[in-house]
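Our consortium's second objective concerns turning raw sequence data into structural hypotheses that experimental partners can test. To show how far this objective has progressed, the report includes one record in full. It was chosen at random from the queue rather than selected for favorable results. The single chain below, 640 residues long, was entered without modification.
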Amino acid sequence: MNKEYINSNFPLLSQIDSPVDLRALPVESLPQVCSELRRFLIESLSVNPGHFASSMGAVDFTVALHYVFNTPYDRIVWDVGHQAYGHKVLTGRRDAFENNRKMNGLSGFPNPKESEYDAFIAGHASNSISAALGMSIAAQLQGDKDRNVVAVIGDASISGGLAFEAMNNASINKNNLIIVLNDNDMAIDECVGAFGEYMSHLNTSRKYNDMKMKVYEYCVRHKLINEHGRGLILRFSNSVKALLANRQNIFEGLNIRYFGPFDGHDVAKLVDVFNDIKDMRGPRIVHLRTRKGKGFAPAEKDPTTWHAPGKFNKDTGEILSKPSDQPHPLKFQDVFGKTIVELAQADEKVVGITAAMPTGCSLTFLQEAFPKRAFDVGIAEEHAVTFAGGLAKDGLKPYCCIYSSFLQRAYDEIIHDVALQNLPVVFCIDRAGLVGEDGATHHGAFDLAYLNCIPNMIVSSPIDEHSLRNLLYTSNQVEHGPFAIRYPRGGGKLVDWHNDMQVLPIGKGRKLSSGERVAVLSIGPFGSDVAEAVAKLRSEGVNVAHYDMIFLKPIDEAILEEVGKMYHTVITVEDGTIRGGLGSTVVDWFNDHGYSTRVYKMGIPDEFICQGTVAQLRDYCGIGKGEIKNRIKELFYKTV
């Protein structure tokens, strides 16, 4: 959308270049601002895809927050960031929003490097309360006693362990923390667990809230209590509430003052609520009931599909798929989902676990076929891993499917609760490598390196979907300890489901082609690109060897010995960080065994990689298809 179009179609929004402009408007204009902001998001995201339903549901309270609080002096800390598109538009990035999630454009998530209004990076769930509490205490210690810090967190994210740890700590330190609970009964899929059910039934009467507020204000005004004595009032009010509602309020039980629930789409009411509480002291939580996809009927009806729908028709709500005359290849995650059902049909000990991503990782196939053997534990990666360890300890075969960047959150549990006891948990690591437009918070760049150093761990990566099926079958048929299988987002080749699966020897790779002078060692799906490059180079007289290692740990020492004796130069290719992965392992092995073979490593550089298409990011990292071919050719002619 160009400037002229924005000016003519969004008369209020076009005048808001910062929250200062928003705060200059009368409160009566805010509903129109919300309406225009929703239309702006619909028009923008229909042609430049992103996270849709979450941000649509957050529009009204986003406007109210920036209207009431003095941002950026007052901080807003977003949880995850899927809900923060409206925040970006209101904070000076309206005209740049067409480049959201594009290379050299806006990040899809809040990022302090991008704007002073982005208080904290928000890519993984449940961190907002901890970060906001730290900022609030920092303000108190440094004399900024009037600064408010607001943590915006969803009802799915607040069930995460980190959020509970933060709330447990919030009432014992002096702070001005405000928690805004965006309660829409959803994560990406539906919320699971008892806490979600508790939230859906938590209801406080307006009369009770008014009574509590008046009693508190009267006591402060007449100096009957001070902020140090407010705990007495909280405990008293908690007891009254328990009697009235026959239900303990968990937040006030933690000495966090609770207000709500309120209609999260009534912007005028929200302004009143935020104004009422902003000058209070101590931790407070404002409970808002919202609807994901609010303002766009298809998204309201099916928020899971509309979490990130891709391009769509803004008038009809039709989701547009890319035109293609070829049959669509199966995605790696669908190959996993279909294969685990096959394994479960043959072996009653097979169970599946995911952390709030059954649709994304395709565990839905197992949920449909064997609902009692598929577990969605919610946004709780640490629990998912230790839960899997408990299942394995007593004889089951758990397949724990978690995105690569999310599995980082459970690193201690992988080491302490699984690897230390050598338990046979299979880690199915989805979204490994570069994932594209979600950027630095979501790239699966580190799993090869962070798993490689753990004793007892098997680390593998399939070159294609057939290899993924074989690795999954191997993990079911062979006795083992922790077994990691990591694979990328998206699809490659069609899978012939009539092919029988094969048991692969643990720690053994395979030679795909022989050659001279130079050998290329690859792991994972980049191996297909290497094989293609090697075949093209052969027609040009560049004859190099290629090995698909399959396993990083244990690495195939027979291949390394053969390569060390026969080739002067080795090139390693991987879709993980260049430090600690395949290249580093090969260099260490050659050094330990006295080989002088030169090793050139190709992988993700030692930096956090921004957003962009996967092809753009591969080129940026020097591991695009063209770069792989050129590097092989260059080193072949350099090698004597």
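The partners drew two points from this record. The first strand starts at residue 75 and ends at 78. The mean pLDDT is 89. Both points have been shared with the crystallography group to help prioritize constructs.
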